[in-house]
Amino acid sequence: MAYELYYWNGLQGRGEFVRLALEEAGADYLDITRQPGRGADAMFALMTSDSELHIPFAPPFLKDGDLIIPHVANILFYLGPRLGLAPEDEGLRYVANGLQLTVTDFVAEVHDTHHPIDTSLYYEDQKPEAKARSAAFLRDRIPKFLGYFERVLRQNPGGPDHIVGHALSYVDLSLFQVIEGLTYAFPNAMAKRKMEYPALLALHDRVAKRPNIARYLASPRRLAFNEDGIFRHYPELDNAE
């Protein structure tokens, strides 16, 4: 039975971290809101159900048979061993989960650069605050997070080709997406800083060249970044550093 991924149609967003794992593994899955005749109604039906035993709060969530798994890091913790994208060592699986949760924290901060006050407000309603938040993000938070991941890569006992263990994991795929998204949202800032993180950039390039990922990136299944997602490019924020 195919995995069912539930996320907003038309967006990479948080759902993309799950898609990358499914695509790398060549897993059989359905992106439900993109299926003809289903769309967002199918997603909301589960979220608002009066009979579903374990309703999810928000997308993304994954349905595997009768089991519904919410939250990106939780989904990937579940999928990783099943897709061959988690360390075999049980202890290292918790290390991988901790790294993925740190990615989750970082992605939340990326989102707050363009919605620093209220997620229900449009970006245009909070532009001065977004500019101030972005300036702090570019100055302090990108070096904090990327510097951390760079150190973890360099100090990995399994070698700097992967963030944890000796083989590709879902965290490597997620870091690829982080670099992709930051490069789209803040091209000027990333152009200035990218050479500070050579191990991360090398990881990004290796992931991009993996056959299944390369095919996915060239396919219509890979949605383009846009200004409705998490990683948004507003030139005035990229110049806020």
Q: What form results from the Cα inertia axes? A: globular
Largest sheet: 4 strands, mixed
Task: Quickly give the structural class.
Answer: alpha+beta
- Order of SSEs: EHEHEEHHHHHHHH
- Count of beta strands: 4
Summed up, the helix count is 10
Q: Portion of residues in helices?
A: 40-55%
Mean pLDDT score, rounded?
96
What is the CA-based Rg, rounded? 18 Å
User: How much strand content do the residues show?
Assistant: 5-15%
The first-to-last residue Cα distance is 48 Å
Keywords summarizing the entry:
globular; 241 residues; 10 helices; 6% strand; four-stranded mixed β-sheet; alpha+beta
Topology:
Layout: E1 3-6, H1 15-25, E2 29-31, H2 39-47, E3 61-64, E4 67-70, H3 72-83, H4 90-114, H5 127-155, H6 170-185, H7 187-193, H8 198-209, H9 211-217, H10 235-238
Parallel strand pairs: 1-2
Antiparallel strand pairs: 1-3, 3-4
Helix pairs in contact: 1-3, 1-6, 1-9, 3-4, 4-5, 4-6, 6-7, 6-8
